[in-house]
Every structure is written in C-alpha cells, then in structure tokens.
Amino acid sequence: MEVILIGFMGSGKSTISKLLGEKLNLEVRDLDQVIVDYENSSIHDIFLTKGEPYFRQLEFEMLQQQADFNGVLATGGGTIINGNCASHVQASDVPVVLLDMSDNAIEDRLGKRAGRPLASSKTTDELIELKHERDGRYHECADFVVKTDYKNPKQVVDEIIEYLK
Ligand code: S3P
User: Fold this and answer.
1) Smaller CB count within 10 Å for the chain: N or C?
2) Consecutive H or E run containing 129
3) Which of 59, 84, 57 is nearest to 74 (CA)?
4) CB of 9 closer than 6 angstroms to any ligand 1 atom
5) Are 43 and 36 in contact (CB under 8 A)?
6) At 19, is the secondary structure helix, strand, or coil?
7) Residue-range domains of the chain with CATH
8) pTM (two decimals)
C-alpha cells in the first residue's frame, strides 16, 4: 500500500481516498467494500446476522490481504481499534493518515446514519463519546494527522500529498 486512511465514521475516508487516488494516479480500495464483496452482504446485514466479532475478525483478515495492494486504502472507522489491526498497520512501513474532525462536525457528517450499524442506534452525544474513546488509538497509529474541519476535500488531499512528498 502507498497510504492508509484512518478516522472516525463520517470523517471523509471514502471521499478523500477517491480524490487522493485520482491525483496520485493510484488505485483506491475501501476495506468495508472489500468485506461487502467478500461476504456478498451489506455491512448492516453482516452485523445483524453474524455479529460484530465476526465482522472484526473478517476486517482483520481482509486488512492482512491488502499487503500487496499498491494504492490508497480507506479503512473502516473501527478497523484500527482492533488491536490486531493496529499492530499490523504499525508494523508496516506504509504511511498512515488520520482524518481528524472535531466533535462539532459529527452531527453534520453523521446526520444520515443509515447503513452504519454502530452509528444508527446512537445519539450524537453517544457518538462523540465513542470518538473520544477511540481518539487515543487513532492518534497512536497515525503518522500524519489532517484536521478536516472547514476544509474542502481538495484542501485535505493537497495536505496529504504535501506530506507524502
Ligand atoms: C465502523 C465503521 C464503518 C464500518 C462499520 C464499523 C466503526 O466504516 O466499518 O460499520 O466501528 O466505526 P465507516 O467509518 O466507513 O463508516
């Protein structure tokens, strides 16, 4: 991999990975999508029918399978919260970029929670609490942090490209 994007749900990993891939002329992969394709089922249905532990194990396996992928990998918001995934990412020499948004941005970004099983049952305050619980791990794993508030996708991508140079 050339770069891994991490960050909380709604932080823009999918949007930014696509734009970054275009600019750098690199293939883009979304780990959630890899899982959806593998299971032939939506994330929502995997959580519902097989449960979160099953999803997390699969997420780790699919992450490991990306070792030979030479592109931009967008992870899920919980990927590196799994200690196995965090260790795997930290042991690799691939740059890890954290898309970091403020608590205030959560309501805007996650207004529509459909399709996100962990977000759909939570209030905004609960989501903020979950983000706080995870923030330490996100920062621990990140080689570079981009603050995304008040920036458009192009600005965020430009900052990442500058860092990768
Ligand atoms: C999750 C985030 C989701 C998806 C799953 C679990 C999480 O990805 O992997 O619903 O634990 O934060 P996005 O961050 O792309 O929504």
Assistant:
1) C
2) helix 124-141
3) 59
4) yes
5) yes
6) helix
7) 3-164 (3.40.50.300)
8) 0.95
